[in-house]
Specification:
This is Polysaccharide export outer membrane protein. This protein has about 350 residues and is an alpha+beta fold. The chain has three domains: about 130 residues, Roll (Outer membrane lipoprotein wza fold like), CATH 3.10.560; about 90 residues, Outer membrane lipoprotein wza fold like (Roll); about 90 residues, 2-Layer Sandwich (wza like fold). Helices cover about 30% and strands about 25% of the residues. It is built from eleven helices and 16 strands. A hairpin with a 5-residue loop joins strand 12 and strand 13. The relative contact order is 0.13.
Length: about 350
């Protein structure tokens, strides 16, 4: 941090290569002045960037398909002997203890790892990948040779084959099971108890088949997009990032240097300086308020002259980005005082005291 302050104070440039990323970390020799025109252009750019590509996540919801581990409830009307409960209780091949355990277990036909169920007169019936209606019709066709016009009811009794994972700043992170009601983004968050006060709704991510999608929920709503259009699928991972992962740092000649949390991904330069107590009236140089921004490319350096008319309005419209550094430089007199104090400790204080005598 000290090296960054020295560079800012002199507005010098130095070619420093980041060994991890290869990105040039040199500060520009001349900072970009924060003006009304710059704020307007950045607002247009933010509006463009705010249009999130959620098309891959908004495919129409399909009917639930049966998978391994699901439990099916099957009823053949007029043939109660074919129900799971009757078959378990009357089977002569299992012991009394096994019959008691079967009675306590969920009464239904469990889909095996191979995607099949064992049903009388239908042998190993392959139902994985079928909807309830498709599995019902398939079973009815298999029973037709032995039962005249079979009337079959088939329902998924327990949904266990499809799930998503919700992680991060939610009240109840963990596995969420997908049932016959389509799993939307808001449904998944609500099932997990909602976003915690420390969660950042502007920093959501969905990982699907190795691809990561960033979701800014407030911006999505602001642009007229319905979050319920985002459909989650089996195996998706939803993560809500913590607010403290998107901090802004305020240092230099402010009353209270500190790290600030953004508000739903938003924080203006004026708010950041205000929350730090404002520019120090004794040592701060209002002409030299800097914002250092490091994105994917080279470092960007911006400067605000807070003495100008309308500077506060401009600073209110200049939005900061996560991990920005706001630095207020010291006045020439303050720098001179500090330099002299380091070179000759106590000399300035002694001189002032002598002058008062």
């Amino acid at each position: 941090m000290l090296a960054g302050i020295v560079v800012l104070s002199s507005c010098a440039t130095r070619n420093v290569a980041d060994g991890r990323t290869g990105v040039d970390t040199a500060l520009p020799t001349v900072p970009v002045m924060i003006t009304a025109d710059l704020v307007a252009s950045q607002k247009i750019q933010r509006r463009r960037d705010g249009v999130q590509d959620i098309a891959p996540l908004t495919a129409p919801a399909a009917a639930y398909t049966i998978g391994a581990g699901d439990i099916l409830a099957i009823l053949v009307w007029g043939h109660p002997e074919l129900s799971a409960a009757t078959l378990n209780a009357q089977s002569p091949l299992i012991s009394a203890a096994e019959q008691a355990a079967a009675a306590a277990a969920p009464q239904g036909f469990v889909v095996s790892e191979q995607g099949t169920i064992q049903f009388p007169f239908a042998a190993n019936l392959a139902v994985a990948g079928l909807t309830e209606l498709q599995a019902r019709d398939l079973l009815a066709r298999q029973l037709a040779p032995v039962i005249n016009r079979p009337n079959v009811t088939l329902r998924v009794q327990a949904f266990r084959s499809q799930r998503i994972y919700v992680d991060g700043e939610v009240k109840a992170p963990g596995v969420q099971v997908i049932n016959d009601i389509p799993m939307t983004l808001t449904e998944a968050i609500n099932r997990a108890g909602g976003v915690t006060p420390t969660g950042d709704q502007s920093q959501l991510s969905i990982v699907r088949a190795g691809q990561r999608y960033r979701i800014d929920l407030p911006a999505l709503v602001q642009h007229g997009e319905d979050p319920n259009r985002i459909m989650l699928r089996n195996g998706d991972v939803l993560r809500v990032q913590a607010l403290d992962e998107s901090k802004v740092f305020v240092s230099g000649e402010v009353v209270t240097p500190k790290a600030l949390l953004m508000h739903s991904g938003r924080l203006s330069l004026n708010e950041a300086i205000g929350e730090a107590g404002g520019i120090n009236p004794l040592t701060g140089d209002a002409r030299r308020v800097f914002v250092v921004r490091r994105g994917q490319g080279p470092i960007e350096l911006y400067q605000l002259d807070a003495r100008d008319t309308g500077a506060l309005a401009i600073a209110e419209s200049f939005e900061l980005a996560p991990r920005d550094l706001v630095f207020v430089d010291a006045t020439g007199l303050a720098n001179w005082h500090r330099t002299l104090s380091m070179m000759i400790p106590g000399s300035l204080t002694s001189a002032v005291s002598a002058g008062k005598q």
